[in-house]
Amino acid sequence: MTLARLPILIASSLLLVLNTLLHATPLLLLALIKLIVPIASFRAWCTRALMWLGGHWIDWNNVLIRHLGRSEWQVVGDTELDPKGWYLVLSNHQSWVDIPVLQWACNHRVPFLKFFLKDELIWVPVLGLAWWALDFPFMKRYSREFLEKNPHLKGKDLEATRKACRKFAAMPTSVMNFVEGTRFTLAKHARQQSPFRHLLKPRAGGVAHVLDVLGERLGAILDITIVYPDGRPGVLDLLSGKVRRVLVEIRKRSIPTEFLRGGYDEDPAFRERFQAWINQLWIEKDQRIGALAATA
Question: What is the residue extent of each domain of the chain?
């Protein structure tokens, strides 16, 4: 980042912090009231009000980020969606910038996006509590090595996924899943020996468990592909106005009936078919990234 962009970085950071504080305060107060009052209808109203506040928070973030940086962000594909529907949103993952990009692309087009977050993010000042107030699910992730030493914890993360999804069933929701499980880097790509040019290997388990709980409610999958024509950015690039061009493609996909309910953990044949389906989605996404980057 050059010194010439330092004023933009400072201004955008301060305005985003102010916007967060202005919205997080009523979010937390309303969430606490919802927690205390045991009346189901009142809690449902609180949930709708919280989602409205969350959408308004994102609206102002979008204005600040895009106009301070004079950004040229574009959404193509299936953009006529139902803001009162249920969706499973799948996306490639390259940077923390993906999150504000997805929020910008989806806000008001679909119900408020719910991300699965690592449990330690609850301790992020202000934001952690705001995410809690908005019913973002916090997940404890275990490495394969840790589970080998502690086999009694195997399946706990998947049970937490099911628990979060049961809560989502109460009102229209967009459940967001970064299928790769982590941000793309060349080092991770090489370590995995990924067969894809632009992607890491997909992890099918989380998607399978969301479909197992919410499958009959979900109207469609939104297959979202994010391309940064000028290179993969970081948060400082976003705040300093350097992320000028972003291309987001939304493809609405039907959910195969055979995967609406199944035994991913118990049925090896089902698991193999499901993994093959996800892998095919990833083959197509890898090709789309190349094609979109070539035309951007």
Answer: 71-295
DSSP conformation letters of 10-64: HHHHHHHHHHHHHHHHHHHHHHHHHHH---HHHHHHHHHHHHHHHHHHHHHHHHH
pLDDT digits (tens, 9 = 90+) for 233-243: 998 888 888 88
**Nearest alpha-carbon partner for 180 in 255, 269, 95:** 95
Exposure of 258 by Cβ count < 10 A (0-12 exposed, 13-18 middle, 19+ buried)? exposed
CATH topology for 71-295 is Glycerol-3-phosphate (1)-acyltransferase (3.40.1130)
The DSSP call for residue 110 is: B
pLDDT in tens, 29-70: 999 999 899 898 998 899 999 999 999 999 999 888 877 666
Rounded to whole angstroms, the Cα distance separating 71 from 65 reads: 8
